[in-house]
Amino acid sequence: KTFFIAGLLAAKYGRLISFTGSIGALAVMTVISTVLGQLFHAVPPSLTQGVPYDDVIAVLAFTYFGLKTLIDSSQIEDNTNSGIEEEKADAEEAVEQLTQQEKRDSLVAKITQTFGLVFAAEIGDRSFLSTIALSAALNPYAVASGAIAAHASATGVAVAGGVFLSKYLSEKVIGYISAALFLVFAVT
To answer: Quick count: other Cβ atoms within 10 Å of Cβ 97?
Structure first.
């Protein structure tokens, strides 16, 4: 949904405004999830009886997301993008509700609106939970900077033409790639 929100807002407000608001929200979300992961990591070994629960939780989370995404993707009919179309429709609805609100002309207000919309869409989703799991098991600075760089790349693609690009990508292929990445992360 965030991909479409960024793309739609880029068309409405401009690419720079959409990118700035989106990446700001994603960066804040990443920092929050990294801190949460570090809280899991900080549980004293005396409470865990030497079991590395932070690593176990990370492996289980990635395995779950990988298998769930793989199963969901295998159930998608070939040459159909109904899930992508649903996400796009949800994003269009969210953007339309945003624009029906009090229309503000200031740059800061548009960036703030974009920030709020993207933050609400992202909090608690797979990338949020994955970042918690990675931060619990790995270096938090590397996790946060890598996640922010990945979000910046994806947001850049979205604002540069994500809605157009989504017409040419199969939801099933995207699902299989996502599942494979989650499972690779679980193994590593």
So the answer is: 10
How much of the chain exceeds pLDDT 70, in percent? 74
Whether the CB-CB separation of 170 and 79 falls below 8 Å is answered with: yes
Distance CA 186, CA 180 (A): 10
Measured from the Cβ of residue 143, the count of other Cβ atoms closer than 10 Å reads 23
Q: Name the pTM for this structure.
A: 0.66
Query: Could you give the CA distance from residue 18 to residue 8 in angstroms, rounded to a whole number?
Result: 9
Q: Let me know: does 6 contact 157? Beta carbons within 8 Å.
A: no
DSSP state at residue 125: S
In this model, does residue 81 exceed pLDDT 90?
Answer: no
pLDDT of residue 102: 45
